[in-house]
Amino acid sequence: MIPDFDVIIIGSGPAGVSAAFPLVESGLLVLMVDGGTKATMPPPNNAFLAIRASDNDQWKWMIGEEFHALRKIDAASPKLRVPGLRYVFEGYAELNQIVSHNFLSVGSLATGGLSNAWGCGVACLSRYEMSDFPVNFEHFRQSYESIAKRMGISGCHDDDMADYFGLDAWAQRPVQMDALHSHMYQRYSIHNAKLASMGFRLGRSRVAALSEPYASRMACDLSGNCLWGCHRRSLYSALNDLTSLCKYENFRHVSGFVVEQLAQKEGYWSINGREGKHRDIRSISAHKLILAAGTLATTKLALGALKMQKPVRVLSNPTAAFLLWLPRFTGVARNNTFGLGQLSFNLKLPDETSVFGSTFSTTGIPISEFARHLPTGRRYGIDLLRNLLSSCVVGNLFLSGAYSASEAKLQNDGSLVISGGYKQQVTHTMNRLMKNLRKAYWMSGAILLPGSFKIGSPGSDIHYAGSLPMRISPRAGETSSNGELHGLPGIHVVDGSCLPTLSEKSHTLTLMANADRIGRIVSASSDFTHTTTKP
Amino acid sequence: MRLVVTGASGYIGTRLTHLASERGHDIVIASRKEPTYFTTSWLYFDLLSLKALALPKETDVVIHLAANTTQADYFDKEAEVITAQRLVKSAQEVGAKFIFVSSQTARPDAPTSYGITKWRIEQVVLSAGGNVARPGQVYGGELRGLFGTLVNTIHNLPLLPAFIPAPKVQPIHVDDLAEGLLRIAERNDINPRIYCLATPKPVSFSEFLKNITKSRLRCQRLFFPVPIIAIKTLALALGDSLQTQLRLDQLLSLFDLPFMETASDLEELGLTLRPLSAGMHPSGNDRRRGLLQEGHALLSYVLKEPPCSAVLRRYVRAVEHVRNGNALGLPKLFLSYPIFLSLLDYSTWADKTKGVEFSWRLDAATMLAETTPLGAYRFLGIGSRNGVLISLLSIINAMTCEIFWRLLRVLFSPLIRFFWGRARGAA
Question: Which of B367, B368, B407, B410 to mutate to test the interface with A (most CBs of A within 10 A)?
């Protein structure tokens, strides 16, 4: 029997498309399957403030004609309330049979995956941070470069964070900062030395957003609709890459196929799942499988194939959010501005704890998101926010994944149960961080408003990783340096699940580079029947 | 249960058959023409034909609604009574319960022949061990029957008569009546007798008309006083035949309505009638109105000015689609003066369930209010003047108000709890 394809890639998100390019370029017959949900409404096509002042139909894309935002009032993140992004998050836990306890399990069945709704943070890991990765650092840097150039990133700036991000060589100039952030950066530069001794570094955010046009995508014009959807396609989404992949003759894309099981069929691998509106069961076979369905779903499929019911750890970054007030800007008029990270910081405590965070403008975020957290009633709370928020910025921070204590376990009925939690020292560490940040930002001209520092619940970072880690000598439930599951030759994991550690840095670029690296390795091997060109 | 219904296409009949089929009963329509609207069994039945009706053996209940409301001559009236006798006999033969829907005007000495005929049939039914239901002034639903005539007349007349002394009516919503009839049909433990189904406390006829103008027609009408004596004198002068021609006899029977003792009958059937103002609403209940009032209060509280109708309607739809569609039952004080909602905008003191739903409604109102151009002005300050001083003053003003209401909240919290508990009980 000849299998249907050389390689099947499960998932069309950043990891899936990054693994696909080298495979497709080497002439292999590649199939990519995904859950297939698609956007149902176009994003707003004018600057945020202009639409808010004039559009009578703004409620349709801010709340939804079926009141999506009201149905999700309790969700942890404002993104989950955006009606235009409903298709990104819908159905993931249900169709993948993922049950969570004290953990926010978010993933995507959409074409393009979570990159349709992400914060666009990018960063390279340092040699030290990759010491647990069974990879060659210089080799990995090549993958970083290739991905960064393909995505289109910006933020290149001669500042104290250039080394931390490590990718300025491949980045466009930064997107314009707003007045508040410019002020903070100026004050930081003045007190640079003192802050450096505190372990605090501040610099421009490096993000996967275009400051200059690239291919068919336009540069950011500061319309501020980042949360609601970028009509200029300035923000990277794997959909862009998928369009390029579809131009290859040896690439096929089947949408709406949710994989339920991996099986062996006459010496080859096959995926069994349900396709289409009527959820017909289908089976497709290939020499090799690439799992890129998102950490949670990939883990479920892998553990199912391994028939392993031992719990595996799930790394996630404990996060917190806070509000900074710049008194000097009280009462200024609101302006259209970039909605994602503008300045990012790295704070290192004496005990080597390292945190990463960014600050961003409040303009594109609905006021009701803030009003809900105020200790005052709504009526006067709104008055307060109307006058105060234009001089505020929102900040977030991420701790290393080593602080998480979450795990996933396969059940008898095939479902995956995730139990979330943090290590004990997280609360104490967060308190110390809050105090240090307050001091650091005070010197940068901003007041960290008391009571605004809120620690997120487990999983709310949506940066899950490390459940099937790459090791030099992998054991059951682990993967080798090319992502191959130990005991299941021919199945490669390329998304977050195979990362051995999760630092506090944004991990998307790293997982894409890793997927690219693995894709190259797999395409170079010679166990294929369908190749049209010899390796 | 299998129900044979005569007069199923009439004002009461349509609602009764609709409700009964929803409840899963088997309806057999007995009429002259085969119905097209109902996929159900049919029997030929003519009120005036004097022919016997062969009822199916499995019939459980016969409900006799058919009546001649047009001008009837002597022979037609006799025919009606004889047909009823035959119908009662057929029901006895198959062992079916008989329910005759009569009228409040049924008396041996009624001013109209309609009333007299009803009374005669009542006697036939009662002596055979059947049940009689006497409805009060039926209103609501589609514009049919006497209710329909009244509404259309009001619609066309610029002025309405306020009779002096005001005659009293005892209204009952057509759906409540249908419910009552079904309960008489369904229950096995009650004795056959006359059931009076109407509002226990009579309402003045002018009040009834006012409700129609306010809740059903949403119009204004002026009333001019008309002494009843004048009508009665006119009637006498015109004589019997002209009376019936001009429908004056209906008016006279209105003046002569006997009071019906209904409270005990309603209690026995476990029937609660909806209030007149709610029932007069075209939808049959004022659930929507309650939600509109609530939405208006919450949105005004958040926006500091009344909301536009689009946002208000959105709020109502949101509660209907996402929550249970019922108004919270806020006391009138908060609905009329939304600023007092500041006292409630702090859910931890209220009891758990009420607090959570109120919080949700307030959150929803906030989000809906924000997503409008007016909301952009109010929430984002777009288009308003800027400047440090203005902002600081505004913040201080807001905080002062907040503190003021917090103090009031603390002082009056037991009182608020009491009022809210009472309103919740009443709702």
Answer: B367
Chain A interface test: which of B348, B361, B370, B403 (most A C-beta within 10 Å)? B370
Question: Which chain A residues have a beta carbon less than 8 Å from that of B302?
Answer: 378-379, 382
Residue B305: its chain A contacts at CB < 8 A? none
Q: ipTM > 0.85?
A: yes
Q: Which long-range contacts (CB under 8 A, 24 or more apart) does A184-188 make?
A: A184/A326, A184/A343, A184/A359, A184/A393, A184/A441, A184/A444, A184/A445, A184/A446, A185/A343, A185/A444, A187/A443, A187/A444, A187/A445, A188/A443, A188/A444
Q: Mind telling me how many Å the CA of A244 is from chain B's nearest CA? A: 37
* Contact in structure between A246 and A111 (CB atoms under 8 Å): no
For chain B, residues with pLDDT lower than 50 are 348-351, 426-427
Q: Exposed, middle or buried, A389 (CB in 10 Å: 0-12/13-18/19+)?
A: buried
Q: Do B366 and A386 touch (CB under 8 A)?
A: no
pLDDT for B385-423, tens place per residue?
A: 778 888 889 999 999 999 999 888 888 877 777 766 665
Contact yes or no for A116/A40 (Cβ under 8 A):
no
In this prediction, residue B100 carries a pLDDT of: 94
Of residues A198, A197, A225, A196, the one with CA closest to residue A209: A225
Cβ contact (<8 Å) for B368 and A330? no
To which H or E segment does residue A139 belong? Answer: helix A137-151
Torsion angle defined by CA atoms of residues A143, A144, A145 and A148, in that order, rounded to the nearest 10 degrees: 120
> What are the angstrom distances between the C-alpha of A351 and each of A148, A348, A416, A422?
32, 8, 36, 19
Predicted pLDDT of residue B236: 77
- pLDDT digits 0-9 by tens, A500-514: 999 999 999 999 999
pLDDT digits 0-9 by tens, A117-173:
999 999 999 999 999 999 999 999 999 999 999 999 999 999 999 999 999 999 999
DSSP output for A51-115: HHHH-TTHHHHHT-TT-HHHHTTT-SSGGGG-GGGHHHHTTHHHHTTEEEESS------BTTGGG
Q: How far apart are CA B279 and CA B138, in angstroms?
A: 11
Task: Indicate the residue of A56, A378, A387 with minimum beta-carbon distance to B394.
Answer: A387
CA torsion A156→A158→A160→A163, rounded to 10°? 60
Rounded-to-integer distance, Cα B286 and Cα B268, Å: 26
